Amino acid sequence: MALLDVNNLSVSFGGLRAVDDFSITIEKGELYGLIGPNGAGKTTVFNLLTGVYKPNEGVIKLDGEDITRKSTIEINHSGIARTFQNIRLFKQMSVIDNVKVGLSETFKYSALEGILHIGKYKSVEKKMDDEAMKLLKVFDLDKERDVLASNLPYGKQRKLEIARAMATSPKLLLLDEPAAGMNPNETAELMETIALVRREFDMTILLIEHDMKLVSGICEKLTVLNFGRVLKQGETKQVLADKEVIAAYLGQD
Amino acid sequence: MSFLTYLINGLSLGSIYAIIALGYTMVYGIAKMLNFAHGDFIMVGCYVIFTVSGALSGNSVVGIIVAIVLCTLLGITTEFIAYRPLRGAASPLAVLITAIGVSYLLENVALLIFGADIKSFTSVISWEGLSLAGGQLKIQGVTIVTIIISLVILLVLQLFINKTKQGQAMLAVAEDKGAATLMGINVNKTIMLTFAIGSALAAIAGALLCSAYPSLSPYTGAMPGIKAFVAAVLGGIGSIPGAMIGGLLLGIVEILSKTYISSQLSDAIVFGILVIVLLVKPTGILGKVIQEKV
User: Fold this and answer.
1) A to B CB pairs, distance under 8 Å
2) CB-CB neighbors (< 8 A) of B172 in chain A
3) Which phi-psi region, left, alpha or beta, contains residue A180 (left: φ > 0; alpha: ψ -120 to 50)?
């Protein structure tokens, strides 16, 4: 059974059909790319998958469970986590606290225990700290644990956003243009980080990207969106060699 | 020596403003709304203590506990019924007007139940206080207790916000509601907890306020509520240490201007200071400069 199974998803804003009859199937462990020209509806697809927008039509199934009408929080708890095109870290919080926010649904104690520092408070906070540090080590951010997120260099902010998403223990990770604004060195490091996430956590990843080097370098399969519709779907090499795809990107001659 | 007495009295009144301002500032910082009914939660707390203590022939400890519980429930209920449905409203004015409506509702329900006559409140603190420097410096028990309680509250609140997962969730919601939701944080639950804490603090502030100024009417909470709001803005709304500093400053200014300038002009001076501070530093003393998103 596929991990993510999306069928005939559509959404309109006013008269604009932003996503039209979108279908995708992602198997467990796959690294899947979603590409397309600006305004093709890629981020809208992410917002539909995470429940920020509700589709007019279509069904989204995660691991066999229908999550189409679920709220954003429920979808996160079901196992989809994401990062954002323009980084949305909690900038006024430290690196470790950003990750702990991601962990806070897994580890529980009551507000009263928290206020009075009694009961499970100490032991659970300790477990959260340990878990957060484990994650930060994987992403090589453990030395910056007490740095404010806003003071991290750009590349590390991207990494921290991925670490925070991983803290919610997802089944599927959505990365929205992770290489946006990066120089070639940072992009190369990001590709390593993504490979690391797959290796360490056996993670299924769907990513939106404009950087063709990154896409062709790491994605196994691609879906090309154009004007809200699927233009092409399949193995990366075949898709990138497709005439229609090249035309959509470079314009027809 | 008398200056010192006035200063300490100012600190005490300021501590009460600070506790109320904490409620304002937390709700504003996290839910991005001004709960103008906050002052009236104080009045409700006072009437609960008054009634319960009266029924139990002066046992104020039970009264205070009942008041904290009921005010917490009142805060949660108000948020759930009156504010939550308006959270997505097109204009932030909708919830502001509703808050003013809730304020009038509470005042008039109190008027209906308890009448307009002023009740004499028995102080919840029976301690006489200290007499220092050979009797020249007398400090009332309620003054000392108020200052200590407010410091304890500030400390506990700071630890709670910075060192617990619920507190971290509050900070996350305050900064980016959308991203917090996508990380699995329940925004409704977090805002509800904020209201619960703010309202519990209002009950405590009520007990201290009516112990220091023992006359209770349905409008008891209105003026302290507005002054605490001024204190929160003065300190930088959204900032917890800011609410504390703003509250203390306001209390001291109020008492000193009452003593040395004019008791009739003291409120004018207090609000005048607000105007001046906002002209010089619009975000308040500890307020952060808000960066406009491009």
Assistant:
1) 82
2) 90, 93, 101
3) beta
